Amino acid sequence: MARATTPTRPPGRPRAGVDAEVFAATLRTVDELGYARATVDRIAAAAGIAKTTIYRRWPSKGELITACLIDAFGPAPLAGADRKEKLAAAVRWIAAKIGEPGIGAAFAGVFTDAVGDPALREVLSTRLQDPYRIAFQEALGEPENRVLFVIDVVVGTLLHRMGMTGEPMVEADVDALVEMVVRELR
Predict the structure, then answer these.
(1) Average pLDDT, integer, range 155-161
(2) pTM of the model
(3) pLDDT tens track for 49-65
(4) Is 50 exceeded by the pLDDT of residue 7?
(5) 3-state SS assignment for residue 12
(6) Numbers of helices and strands, H then E, in the chain
(7) Are the C-beta atoms of residues 17 and 26 closer than 8 Å to each other?
(8) For residues 21 and 32, what is the distance between their CA atoms, to the nearest angstrom?
(9) Predicted confidence (pLDDT) at residue 15 exceeds the cutoff of 80
(10) What is the C-alpha to C-alpha distance for residues 97 and 72, in angstroms, rounded to an integer?
(11) Region for 11 from its dihedrals, namely left if φ exceeds 0, alpha if ψ lies in -120 to 50, beta otherwise
């Protein structure tokens, strides 16, 4: 007679949901402590996991933050009847995301780290910027250099405001930014 067997699972914590827990803990930690003090040790503790679990998935804090930002931003909402509406929706979406707790500080911090780290710049470029750049190019019918200029102006302006005031840009200023960018791409 055959014995009934129970399915075995690998030892340790189940993997489903670990990424979501780590991303949530990352944003909380960055929001509470700032980017520089949000170490992998502190993020792991906030997520209730070992730091080796983080390092198995992301070999550096920069790669963890990049993955966290990609998850937080999700796909670009490029809906609209015309280029102007699509561009306006994209700028407002970016402004709203950067204003969410921890995201602006994480974004600014990883960019700062990338200044002196060519490998991290490559990760940011290929994993974070390129998918959005390509989507914007296709949706707006603009060449790469113009889309990169718009991304630089919008993200740079939003992060500068966050860095100077500690607060996201107010709606009236986002509206002015939208108008400026739309005017430039006419």
Answers:
(1) 95
(2) 0.86
(3) 999 999 999 999 999 99
(4) no
(5) coil
(6) 10, 0
(7) no
(8) 16
(9) no
(10) 8
(11) beta
